[in-house]
Amino acid sequence: MSTLSEAYRDHPLHLHQIIPLDFDSVRAVPDSHVWPESGELESNDHHWLSIPTIDLNDPDRAKLIGHACETWGVFQLTNHNIPLNLLNEVEFEIKRLFSLPARQKLKALRSPGGAIGYGIARISPFFNKYMWHEGFTIMGSPVDHAMQLWPNGYQRFCDVMEDYQKKMEELATTLIHLILQNISMSEEETKWLGSPGGSSTALQLNSYPNCPDPHRAMGLAPHTDTSLLTILHQSTISGLQIFKEGFGWVLVYPTNGALVVNIGDLLHILSNGRFISVLHRVIMKEPKQRFSVAFFYCPRTDFHVFPLGLSSGDEDDDHGQVPLYRSVSVAEYVGIKSKNLDKALSLIRI
Ligand SMILES: O=C(O)CCC(=O)C(=O)O
Ligand SMILES: [Fe+2]
Question: Start and end of every Fe2OG dioxygenase domain (predicted)?
């Protein structure tokens, strides 16, 4: 079976598309990182709107989640059973990683054809300005890179990240089952779910360093995630915004202990466009370093994604009876997205 890592290998980058700025050494935002339109970033923020919050213990959770996926493409999740001390440990390890000196972090630099390790956001080549961001991508055990970073102190980092990925995968499987209850499907169509080796996942650690001029910088440019769904833990510093059709950018307020769940392109395809693959970005809102950790959950890379639960009959409910997207393997879609970013969905539209 090919892996997500291999799916990225066909799209090598140049070093200037991988090495982040040494943020500690700059006193002003360099021209390469000034976003012309970012003066307006704050003003179109709808403070009175907020995304739904769903309690995983709510007896109506499947319906509530389905509705949130249809109307927002994102929600905050409480009572998710991820221990608070694990979230705190993850945050501690992220801080330990990103506070290393720049030359040390470069020892874990992502390779030009690789997917894992330290570097700038993968979406960077699509924008003519750089982002105020550095990231570290993990798929499975991060031990090889962690040994480069801390020759004598890598074990704790590895244990915490592996434990977190395991718990995230369980939670993601639970959520997908609940979400798919909203689409009528045959057993055959869902049997891949939760089966051993049935998924490919990645953990993305994000750091948005303290910025000398936050209003002129962009944390992470607007994008949708490729995943089926993404589970995000954000620190107490705000900055994440989602785009709500008809309103504009809406801030996702950090809520203590809650996780942010957002739909990605693959679930948008599976649901025949019913669930929103939500456009989101990170702005530099507070004069403090912000951290987040995103867990991306996808089916295995040779799995073919196509609209599910379409009935061939002539029922009254005509929602999505006609497939809007062609079948595409996860590996192929990762490739299309790597080359086309926001045009990727339209390229597989029938
Ligand atoms: O930092 C955040 O809040 C969002 C991160 C994100 O969108 C991503 O890693 O894809
Ligand atoms: Fe994202």
Answer: 199-299
Paired tokens of 215: 């209003």
Do the domain assignments include residue 25? no
Report the nearest-CA residue for atom 9 of ligand 1. 294
Question: Residue 282: CB within 6 Å of ligand 1?
Answer: yes
| CATH number of the domain residue 101 falls in | 2.60.120.330
ipTM of this predicted structure: 0.99
The pTM of this model reads 0.94
Residue 23 lies inside a defined structural domain of this protein: no
Burial 109-137 (b: 16+ CB within 10 A, else e): bbeeebbbbbbbbbbbbeeebbbbbbbbb
Which H or E element spans position 91?
helix 84-98
In this structure, what token pair is assigned to residue 165? 């990925």
Do the domain assignments include residue 294? yes
Q: Which residues surround ligand 2, an ion (CB under 5 A)?
A: 225
